[in-house]
Amino acid sequence: SPRTEAHTLGVAAAPVRLSRAGLGRARTSGRVPPLVRAMPRRTHRVGGPAASSSGSRAAAPAAAAGEGHGGAAAAAASRKPHRFRPGTVALREIRKYQRSTDLLIRKLPFARLVREITQTYNSAPVEGEKRWQAEALMALQEACEHYLVHLFEDANLCAIHAKRVTIMVKDIQLARRIRGANSESLR
To answer: How far apart are CA 31 and CA 112, in angstroms?
Structure first.
């Protein structure tokens, strides 16, 4: 009984009543020392491998040793791939692109776009396609990337001013409006 267990510990216990549901859970009335209240009725088995619900007892040591179905291969397959915390890869990419001076837009797609725009605005229909020197395309691409980088810097400042970290279309529109989108300067 709980009273005799408490007396063996040298602690006076309060009277114990069973709950109304009859599930055998005891409720104490009055003030009871924490040692008596938290004391389990039976000691539980501690340590060792968890028992499996299926299979025989003889199969447990073989599974614990890594033999049988899968073994080390199954453990390696169940391991999750390494994931960086959110923002780590983004910061690494920012540092990478800030260090480099390479062009970020691919050269051939940019050249095709320039030729398409040139053909659209070609005033002489008989002459055919205009030609571009490689250095002229490179200079145009440098100027375009410079313009875009500074436009996104200004749009980022607009987003930060609005207490956001995501650049939205309205930030780019505001940056172009403030700097004068129709002006001849790139900055």
So the answer is: 86
Quick: pLDDT tens for 143-183: 999 999 999 999 999 999 999 999 999 999 999 999 986 65
What CATH architecture applies to the domain 98-179? Orthogonal Bundle (1.10)
Q: What is the pLDDT, as a whole number, of residue 121?
A: 84
Domain coordinates in residue numbering, the chain: 2-37, 98-179
The 3-class SS string of the chain reads: CHHHHHHHHCCCCCCEEECCCCCCCEEECCCCCHHHHCCCCCCCCCCCCCCCCCCCCCHHHHHHCCCCCCCHHHHHHHCCCCCCCCCHHHHHHHHHHHHCCCCCCCHHHHHHHHHHHHHHCCCCCCCCCCCCCHHHHHHHHHHHHHHHHHHHHHHHHHHHHCCCCCCCHHHHHHHHHHHCCCCCCCC
Q: Which of 113, 104, 121 is nearest to 137 (CA)?
A: 113
